[in-house]
Amino acid sequence: MHTATLLLIVLSAGLASQWVAWRIHLPAIVVLITSGLLLGPVSGIIQLELSQTELTELIGLGVAIILFEGGMDLKLGEVRRVGHGVGRLTIVGPPLAWILGALAAHFVAGLSWPVSWVMGAILVVTGPTVILPLLRQARLNTESSSLLKWEGIVNDPVGVLLAVLTFQYFTLAGSNWSQIVTGLGAAVAVAALLGGLGGWLIGWFFRRGGVPPHLKAPLLMVLVLAAYWTSNLVQHEAGLLTVTVMGLVIGNMKLVEREPLRHFKENLTVVLLSVLFIIIPSQMKIEQLEFLDLRVAAFVLTILLLVRPLTIALATLGAPMRGRDKLLLAWIAPRGIVAAATAGIFGPALVAAGYPDAEVLLPLVFLIIIVTVLAHGLTLGPLARKMSLAAQEANGLLVVGASPWSLALAQTLKDLKVDVVVTDGSYQRLKPIRMNGIKVYYGEILSEHAEHELDNEHLSYLLCATDNHFYNALVCKAQGAVFGHHRTFQLAPQMESDQEQKRLTLQQRGYFAFEPPTDFCTLQERLEDGWTVQSTRLSEDFDLDKLKSRLGEPGDDWLLLGSVSPQGTLQIYSSEQPFKTDAGWTLLYFSRNSDAEPTKQVAG
C-alpha cells in the first residue's frame, strides 16, 4: 500500500473514531484502540514498513508534543491552593505506585521480576490525554480538578523515566544503582536546563517581538521537538520530562500569545492522539492476545481495587486534604497514550533482551487502558456529583456587570430556581445584588484569580451586560471556549451601525442577546420607566404567538429574554439564534407592569 494512502487511512480512521466517540458519549481512547485493532491484527489493512526503532522514535515525537501541551495547561497559581496534595501525588505517589504495581505484576500476573518492575513503572502514569477531557465532561470543582490534572501531567514523564532506568538496570551489562541515580540526576539536570531555562528564553524572545506572529506556533513546535531530541542524547527518554517542564514554564509566563499557542497545540494534539492510538494497537499480533487469561484479569482488578487505593492512602497519609478528594483520587486513574507508547517501546526490547514473558506487556497495558478509561470515565461524573465535588447538570447564568437591571433579571431567575451569579469589579455595584441573596463574584472576570476561584462549572450561559460594548465583546471572546460560543451573549451596542461592515464581526464578539434594541442605556431607561422582568407559563391554549399579540410589538413594547423548560433548563433568547418553546415552558420577558398582569392571568 502506498504511504500516502496509508496515512490517509490512519488519519481518517482516527478522526472518525473521535467523532463516533463524541456521538455515542464514550471515551475516545476506547473507540480509537478498537479501530486500531480492527485495522491492524484483525484485518491487516495497516502494515507499516518501518523498523521497531523508527516507529518508536516517531511515536516519541508525538508524545513529546502531547506532554508539552499538557504542561502548558498547568497553572502555578493552583499549587498555592492545592500544593500539599500535588506534592504528595507527584513526589511520594510515583515510587509507591511503582513498587506496588511491580509486586502485583509478579505475584498476581506471574511476570518475571525484571518485566514486573518495568510494568510497575509504566503504570505510574495516569494519562493527561484521558484525564483532561474527563475533567471537562465531569465539571469537577477547581481543587479536585487541579489535583487530578497535576498528577496526570507530572507523573507521565516520571513514570517513563522509571521505566527507562529500570530497563537499563536489567538489560545493560554492569548496571547498578549508582548508575540509576546518576541517570535520574542527568534527566533532572537536562530538564531544568533545556526545559526550564530554554522555555524561559523562548518566552523572552517571543515577548520582545523576535519572531513574527505567524511563525511563533510552528517555531515553538520545532523547538520543543529539538529539546526532546537533545535531552534524549544526554539520558534516554529524559526528553519527556524536558518538554513537560518547558510547557509549564512557557504556559506560566503570561505571554500575549499564550492562548493562540495553546489552541494550536490542542488542535495538533487531537490529530496526534488520533494517529498514535490507531498506529500503536495496529502493530500488535493476534498471538499476543492469547496471553490474556484469568491471571491477567485478576491483575487488572488488583491494579484498580488494591494498588491505586493503597498508593493514594499511603501517599496522602496525614496530608491536609479533604477526605472526599482522597476517595476520588483512590478510584480515578485512567491510563493513556504515554503508557501505551512506553509499553510499545519496552515490550519488544525486553523480549530481545531475553525476557520472553515481556510479550504480554503491550496487550496487558492496552487492556488496563481500556478498563480504566471505561470504568473511570463512566463513573467520574456521577461519583463526583454524589460526593459534592462536581456541579450537577450545567444550568444557570453568569451575568457580567452589576446594575439595577442585572438585579431584576437575577431576582426573577432566582425565583424560578435557576442558578445565577453576578460578577463585577465594583463592590458598591454588587452590594444591592448580594443583599438580595444572589450569588456574586467580586473581581475582574478575566483575572487569574477568577480563573481559579470563580465557581462556574454549574452555569451554562454567559451574559455580558456592562455599559461598555467592547469590554462585553472582549469577555465573550475570552470565555467562549469555557461556555461554548453558542452560549455566550452580550448586550448590543448603544449606537449600532446600520452598515454591517462597521460592526464588530460575530467572530470578535458574543451573540447579541434579546430583541434589538437591547443596549445597556435602553434597558436602564425602561427600568426607570416602570418596566419589570416578568415570567409567564405557556400552555396548549396560550402559546408564544398569543403572548406576542397580547404584549404588542417586540422590541418597542416588550423584550423576550429567554425561557425555562418544565425541567428547569434555562435558555437565553437571541434574534441571532433559533429559539423554540412549547407548552409548559416559562417565558422570561421585559415589559411594563400594566401589560404583564393580563398575560399572567390568561397563562395561569
Protein described:
The protein has 604 residues and is an alpha/beta fold. The chain folds into two domains: 3-40 and 52-282 and 294-386, Na+/H+ antiporter like fold; 396-603, 3-Layer(aba) Sandwich (Rossmann fold), CATH 3.40.50. Helix content is 63%, strand content 8%. The chain contains 23 helices and ten strands. Helix 6 (128-138) packs antiparallel against helix 7 (142-171), helix 9 (213-234) packs antiparallel against helix 10 and helix 13 (294-315) packs antiparallel against helix 14. The chain is elongated, with a radius of gyration of 28 Å.
Secondary-structure blueprint of this entry?
Layout: H1 3-24, H2 28-42, H3 52-72, H4 76-107, H5 113-122, H6 128-138, H7 142-171, H8 177-207, H9 213-234, H10 239-251, H11 258-282, H12 286-289, H13 294-315, H14 323-331, H15 337-352, H16 361-386, E1 396-400, H17 404-415, E2 419-424, H18 427-435, E3 439-442, H19 448-453, E4 461-464, H20 469-483, E5 488-490, E6 511-512, H21 520-528, E7 531-537, H22 544-551, E8 558-564, E9 570-572, E10 586-592, H23 593-603
Parallel strand pairs: 1-2, 1-4, 2-3, 4-5, 5-6
Antiparallel strand pairs: 7-10, 8-9, 8-10
Helix pairs in contact: 1-2, 1-11, 2-11, 3-9, 3-10, 3-11, 3-15, 4-5, 4-7, 4-13, 5-7, 5-15, 6-7, 6-16, 7-8, 7-10, 7-15, 8-9, 8-10, 9-10, 9-11, 11-15, 13-14, 15-16
CATH architecture label name of the largest domain: Up-down Bundle
Q: What is the name of the CATH class of the largest domain?
A: Mainly Alpha
Shape: elongated
Main β sheet profile = 6 strands, parallel
Q: Helicity range of the residues?
A: 55-70%
* Rg for CA atoms: 28 Å
For the largest sheet, list the strands in their spatial order.
Answer: 3-2-1-4-5-6
What structural class do helix, strand and pairing data support?
alpha/beta
Number of strands: 10
Average pLDDT for all residues: 83
Count of the domains: 2
N-end to C-end Cα span? 70 Å
CATH overall fold name of the largest domain:
Na+/H+ antiporter like fold
Pick out the low-confidence regions: 595-604
The helix count comes to 23
